[in-house]
Design a protein that fits this description.
alpha/beta, Nitrilase/N-carbamoyl-D-aminoacid amidohydrolase, 6-stranded mixed sheet, 14 strands, 30% strand, globular
């Protein structure tokens, strides 16, 4: 496993309901990431289709693996990069069951997927109307490190990233489609999730306007002490290259021993209290 890796945080806008155009854009930006020496290219939540697609999701969704994941596997094999992107997934068993999914592929093919566990359905959000919630976190061991995945609103729930970290994740990747009204919240919680887990956290957000929703961008890499290593522009497309040095985790884990000081007996009490809200 590499001790240092380069990430391409690719803050892109998408064409709603146009998978062909979005795949072409992902292909071109992955090729650009290769020219910058990146090991991992990260794209936003639902970057395959756009975020606001409503009932069209039933036509746009695919199984995983499926046609679009196979296309992105080709991009990965051609460039030698690992790629993370978001798409609507349809169950192999029923056409009415959809998931908001993050996909990880590498030069050797499909590695794994994560189904969003927390689906916002309030104010401007209506994800529960369309998606079924996932049931578990996801951490994958790869040649470029142990990578945990989560999606947008999952970051509001510390247990998602905590479990990914306890399963070995050194780098947590959060893909997102956060509109501007949530900007301040995400700037706080992304730093908190990195610090409390003493892990690197890469946050990649959608940008542009879809059906009146403005997505604010602000993608970033946060170090294990909660400090912002690099940050993308607000409200416009951006492409940034940054480095993760896994050796930095060792000193941080000693200086901020949050994992050592965990009190697992509280987890069961948390479960019981949550059942009686």
């Amino acid at each position: 496993m590499k001790e240092k890796i380069k990430l391409a945080l690719i803050q892109m806008s998408t064409q709603r309901e146009n998978k062909k155009a979005n795949l072409k854009k992902i292909e071109n930006l992955t090729a650009k990431a290769k020219t910058h020496g990146a090991d991992l290219a990260i794209f936003p939540e639902l970057s395959l289709t756009g975020y606001v697609t409503r009932d069209q999701l039933y036509e746009l969704s695919e199984t995983i693996p499926g046609p679009s994941t196979q296309k992105i596997e080709e991009f990965s094999k051609k460039t030698g990069l690992h790629i993370i992107f978001g798409m609507p997934e349809v169950s192999e068993k029923t056409r009415a069951t959809l998931y908001n999914t993050a996909v990880l592929v590498g030069p050797d093919g499909f590695i794994g997927k994560y189904r969003k566990m927390y689906l916002p359905t309030h104010s401007v959000f209506e994800e529960k109307r369309y998606f079924r919630a996932g049931y578990d976190t996801a951490t994958f061991e790869t040649p470029i490190g142990k990578i945990g995945l989560c999606i947008c609103y999952d970051l509001f729930f510390p247990e998602v990233t905590r479990l990914a970290r306890l399963r070995g994740a050194q780098l947590i990747v959060a893909i997102s489609a956060s509109p501007a009204v949530r900007k301040n919240y995400f700037e706080i919680i992304t730093a908190a999730r990195a610090l409390e887990n003493t892990a690197f956290l890469a946050y990649v957000n959608l940008v542009g306007v879809q059906e009146g929703l403005q997505f604010w961008g602000g993608s970033r890499l946060i170090g294990p002490t909660g400090d912002i290593i690099i940050k993308a522009k607000y409200d416009e497309e951006d492409f940034i290259i940054c480095e993760v040095n896994y050796n930095d985790l060792r000193g941080t884990e000693v200086f901020i021993p949050t994992l050592r000081d965990l009190r697992p007996e509280l987890f069961e009490k948390l479960k019981k209290a949550a059942e009686n809200i």
